[in-house]
UniProtKB/TrEMBL annotation:
Pfam families: N_methyl (PF07963). One of its GO terms (cellular component) is membrane. It is a single-pass membrane protein. The keyword Cytoplasm does not apply. The lineage of its organism: Bacteria, Candidatus Kaiseribacteriota. It is found in: Membrane. GO terms for biological process: protein secretion by the type II secretion system. Keywords: Membrane, Methylation, Transmembrane, Transmembrane helix. PANTHER family: GENERAL SECRETION PATHWAY PROTEIN G, TYPE II SECRETION SYSTEM CORE PROTEIN G. This is Type II secretion system protein GspG C-terminal domain-containing protein. InterPro entries: Bac_GSPG_pilin (IPR000983), N_methyl_site (IPR012902), Pilin-like (IPR045584). The chain crosses the membrane at residues 12-35. Its main location: membrane.
Length: 167
């Protein structure tokens, strides 16, 4: 009598293993996408803080007044020429999603009155500002510790998901 000593995997066993690998890879990709959003939001918050520092340097160097605009020229929703770069910040930061026009940095100079209102350096003394960026991950409470939107004034609505700062 002849016995077969060949051993191998059946088709069902191979399909089960492939299905398990597919499920695990989809879970990993979903987690990776969430981490990418958080990473882009962290960069936005960091960029806002860098722009805020550059604005403070501008303020100290320009008769204690903030500029009307951070950008002197805008192309495709991005700063192409900036009042604060390269003198106060090496490069004006662009949003991490370069192809998107939804996630932009916002700036408006304000008066010191309460509530603050939009200001023009030609007609008034602009001693305050509001600076913000739209976040993707609205559930990230660590990044949403910014100013309250009701106390802002100007043209920017700082309600979540917009991260906003003032001096």
């Amino acid at each position: 009598m002849f016995t077969r000593s060949e051993r191998g995997f059946t088709l069902i066993e191979l399909l089960v293993v492939i299905a398990i690998i597919g499920i695990l890879s989809s879970v990993v990709l979903a987690s990776l996408n969430s981490a990418r959003k958080k990473g882009r939001d962290a960069r936005r918050v960091s960029d806002v803080k860098q722009i805020q520092l550059a604005l403070e340097l501008y303020y100290d160097n320009n008769s204690s007044e903030y500029p009307d605009s951070v950008c002197t020229a805008v192309s495709g929703g991005q700063c192409t020429a900036s009042l604060i770069a390269p003198q106060y910040i090496s490069v004006a930061p662009n949003d991490p999603q370069a192809n998107s026009t939804t996630w932009l940095y916002f700036y408006d100079n304000l008066t010191s009155a309460e509530p603050p209102t939009t200001c023009a350096t030609a007609t008034g003394v602009c001693t305050s500002y509001v600076l913000g960026a739209t976040l993707e991950d609205t559930a990230n409470s660590a990044l949403n510790q910014d100013i309250d939107g009701s106390a802002v004034g100007g043209t920017i609505n700082c309600a979540d998901p917009v991260y906003c700062v003032r001096p």
